[in-house]
Design goal:
Structural class: alpha+beta
CATH class of the largest domain: Mainly Beta
CATH architecture of the largest domain: Beta Barrel
Shape: globular
Radius of gyration: 22 Å
Distance between the termini: 14 Å
Number of domains: 2
Order of helices and strands: HEEHEEHHHEHEEHHHEHEEEEEEHEEEHE
Oligomer: single chain
CATH superfamily of the largest domain: RlpA-like domain
Strand content: 25-35%
CATH topology of the largest domain: Barwin-like endoglucanases
């Protein structure tokens, strides 16, 4: 009883304090928001909805995300928890929610009735917080939303042709980290001044800074060559599968960037941000983020610095669908961005193929954060 009262008092005090919005590079901005304005406890009635998530993929995503949370905690570099404490949601509750999803899916394997496909069961077993998108932030980026909607975009891992050697068709490289960063951990690299990675813009790299006669000739190894347009697409999406002339395929994912900001409204050629890549293991789905495989249609990228990493969400479409997803990725477009998710959709060979495969996905769903009821004292 004492603990419940203390927790309630701490939660109430935190809720009144406001949340300083975290921006580029994990730095606080001058803006504050009230977490309880963005997330509201609600009762929902989803009995007539159709749950469309693959329970197998959702369970795999929840399990991998929970493992990453635990791993980073053990390594002394915990994943961002954002404003969740001010909503009365602890890190333990985030992990417990993910574990619960994985356990339920495992217990239901092979059964005709899948609890995670039953919207009424979902509503009964989770605390539901409706996400009211940050309309001010959306307006600043000329995104039009009404209250109760979020913006849902889609991303993918492209499957492109390429070569380990430059050719007339494949003339632009993805690069590994420059040699002056070899063996440095991300923490050590972050505290080292003057690394080559931080000196060059995207255009400088793609125009030949590491090539013969370039400003830093030979300082970074090319991993694979593609067309310049396809390199831009890989830089935007973060992961690419490359089909090579010998019939094999290799997957490359982002490693570290040059520290330049992503600039909204600019073309790919005008962006200064450049990512260095590394070869990664991946299944046919293609998505990799910091060592965990992303599953299509159940993983989203978002503003983890403000919303917290690892949250479970329900996306409610106006077509009567309910999709459960895990906030397991992020990117430059989410620093800050408290009005949007980017849904990972697997591998596709073209933008047209992506559009065809995702035409049924609502672009302006309602979104709800879900927290396992049994582990919390609901305020």
């Amino acid at each position: 009883m004492r603990w419940t009262l203390l927790a309630a008092l701490l939660w109430a005090g935190a809720a009144q304090a406001g949340w300083p919005v975290i921006g580029e590079g994990g730095r606080e901005t001058s803006r504050q928001v009230e977490p309880t304005d963005l997330f509201e406890d609600v009762e929902v009635f989803w009995g007539d909805h159709d749950a469309v998530s693959s329970t197998r993929d959702l369970a795999a995503m929840a399990r991998a995300t929970g493992q990453r949370l635990d791993r980073q905690e053990r390594q002394g570099r915990p994943a961002p928890h954002g404003m969740l404490d001010q909503l009365g949601i602890s890190k333990e509750e985030v992990r417990a929610t993910l574990q619960f999803v994985a356990d339920v899916a495992r217990e239901d394997r092979g059964e005709s009735y899948q609890r995670l496909s039953d919207p009424e069961w979902i509503a009964a077993h989770f605390r539901v917080l409706r996400w009211h998108a940050d309309l001010e932030g959306a307006g600043n980026h000329r995104v039009r939303l009404t209250d109760g909607q979020i913006r849902l975009t889609r991303y993918l891992a492209y499957r492109f042709q390429g070569s380990y050697e430059p050719t007339a068709e494949f003339d632009t490289a993805l690069y590994s980290l420059p040699e002056d960063e070899s063996g440095l951990s991300s923490v050590a690299a972050g505290s080292t001044v003057g690394l080559i990675r931080s000196l060059l813009t995207r255009k400088q790299v793609l125009d030949g800074a590491f090539e013969d006669g370039g400003r830093h000739e030979g300082a970074a190894e090319p991993l694979v060559y593609m067309s310049r347009q396809h390199v831009h697409e890989a830089l935007l999406q973060g992961t690419v599968q490359v089909a090579l002339p010998d019939g094999t395929r290799s997957t490359f994912s982002v490693h570290r960037n040059n520290g330049r900001s992503f600039r909204h409204g600019r073309t790919a050629e005008e962006q200064d941000r450049f990512w260095y890549f590394r070869e990664t293991e991946s299944d046919d789905q293609g998505g990799v983020n910091n060592g965990i495989a992303l599953r299509p249609f159940v993983a989203v990228a978002g503003d983890v610095n403000n919303l917290g990493y690892g949250g479970l969400y329900a996306l409610e479409g106006d077509n009567g669908t309910l999709r459960l997803v895990v906030l397991a990725d992020t990117g430059g477009a989410f620093q800050p961005n408290m009005y949007q998710f980017d849904l990972f959709t697997g591998t596709h060979e073209s933008r047209e193929a992506l559009n065809e495969a995702t035409a049924h996905i609502p672009a302006r769903p309602s979104a709800y954060m879900l927290v396992l009821r049994d582990t919390i004292e609901v305020p």
